[in-house]
């Protein structure tokens, strides 16, 4: 975990609301794991002031590059979209604990909503590298927002798309879809990011079927160093007693069964 | 060249009987053990862990921070593990560093301030106490002890009865007349004043019409507050000779110098570390660069040296 200035190799708009950025990570000299994130300074000015957290979208060890996929939401991400190729990006990281990838023979299930896919894509990439098959359900507002689908398919993942636009992204439709997938494949572990509604659903289903599951959580961050206690959430530890943890330090990835989803 | 000059600079400042080897230290709540792989704590003027409460506290609802123009609002709500944990884990951890440990105390009543000050004040490795009589998050409407001169005086009187350690009162800027509060703290026997804590603030998301932080109101920090804090340091300097620690919006060496010219003997750095984890080290270097540039050997020659033409 340190600050570094990495050269931006490209920063392009890839759909109405999403941008994709590639940075040269040869300077970084740190191992980056799926599920970890970087706290990025979007510009040198005081507005926006704070860094913004972004997950690793792709880790390209061979090329020594890192990729981010981000949704342009407010001031920070708007400013980030103005960063041009050749400029340097002030990043702090890698931060937090990544996913635990189970290495049995089975298949892993990825359940992502919106930009949550940015976080799970790196896991699909890692799974492919280790010969683990993945199946993904991607949920979004519109078809236009399902941009990582091809990337996942490129890793050999089976991809199911649901959108609000098409009316098949509600909880009951996704439940049916998940049941179907779980019958078809031997799901060994499941991972989710991006929606409380879907996470609750997955929490119930994986508990019933006794499947190991993890979630990557988000919360507004102050320091991303574990000192300010801005990014807390509640979990039940192994003994079942509630405990407040910091997403930047103890997370952002947690065992799904432990997380209190309100 | 600059290295030789660097070594000749006298950066030592005093806060009451407490000697600091330079004027740059962290602000409570924006500093912690997790930063020790990013900066060398021994280079700091002091270590100042997060305010401690007597009993463990869960803290406030999330979101606990949001951003506003050139600042942030926080409502952490002093999440705390309680005094027992502080005594058994936090203090021992910080004793490994060569710089003074300043313990920040938060309490609900004058008795509780005194009780905690007595216990923590007995610990040898604690160099000074900072009384957080200013946190705007503890009670419903953002009220704090430091809003009332009488309460401020009484807290200090009681605490100074039970401890010999230097006591710094961390004032709240959420008052009409900061001079009145500073004087009350002086009458109570404070060894130094921290000017100041965060400024009570609020932000609303116009799309959802909801407050941007869970606690509705919180404390504003960062560059946005600096001019207010500089003004308060200057005002406090007019009425008391007590050493002042300037706190609020110090982002770089220039900001630190500005506060020192207004009358601060040292500065605390909070939000800047979130943006640049090494900010305190850079601020120290920038102060040295300034001194070299203007041929100032002793940093004390800067304190309160604002040049004003008397208007009357
Ligand atoms: C661990 C982690 C990983 C993330 N990964 C990605 C990613 O890969 N791609 C992506 O597009 N987004 C990701 N996000 C969300 C992203 O950080 C926010 O969308 C972004 O900070 C919004 O900034 P803004 O200035 O555009 O929006 P604004 O709404 O103007 O932001 C104002 C403040 O709120 C904070 N904030 C707002 N929304 C969020 C949020 N959802 N999570 C955390 N803080 C927030 C901002 O950091 C900022 O301090 C991640 C968040 C976390 C915590
Ligand atoms: C996240 C956060 C937590 C804080 N917690 C405390 C605290 O526990 N005790 C305290 O006295 N001040 C606390 N403060 C206030 C800071 O110590 C400091 O007074 C304030 O942030 C202004 O300085 P800055 O602009 O450099 O951040 C906190 C500030 C922030 C941003
Ligand atoms: S953001 Fe400060 S503790 Fe996580």
From TrEMBL, chain A:
Spell out the molecular function terms from Gene Ontology.
2 iron, 2 sulfur cluster binding; flavin adenine dinucleotide binding; metal ion binding; oxidoreductase activity
Under InterPro entries, the record lists: Cyt_c3_hydrogenase_gsu, Dihydroorotate_DH_ele_sf, Dihydroorotate_DH_Fe-S-bd, FAD-bd_FR_type, FNR_nucleotide-bd, PyrK_electron_transfer, Riboflavin_synthase-like_b-brl
As to how many cofactors bind and how, the note says:
Binds 1 [2Fe-2S] cluster per subunit.
Q: What are the record keywords, sorted? A: 2Fe-2S, Electron transport, FAD, Flavoprotein, Iron, Iron-sulfur, Metal-binding, Transport
| Residues involved in FAD binding | 52-55, 76-77
Source domain of life is: Bacteria
Cofactor(s) needed by this chain: [2Fe-2S] cluster; FAD
Q: Start and end of every FAD-binding FR-type domain?
A: 1-101
Q: Where does [2Fe-2S] cluster bind?
A: 223, 228, 231, 248
Q: Which GO terms describe its biological process?
A: pyrimidine nucleotide biosynthetic process
Q: One Pfam family for this entry, by name? A: DHODB_Fe-S_bind
Q: Which SUPFAM superfamilies match?
A: Ferredoxin reductase-like, C-terminal NADP-linked domain (SSF52343), Riboflavin synthase domain-like (SSF63380)
The entry's family comment says: Belongs to the PyrK family.
Name the chain's protein.
Dihydrdoorotate oxidase
Q: Which organism is it from?
A: Paenibacillus beijingensis
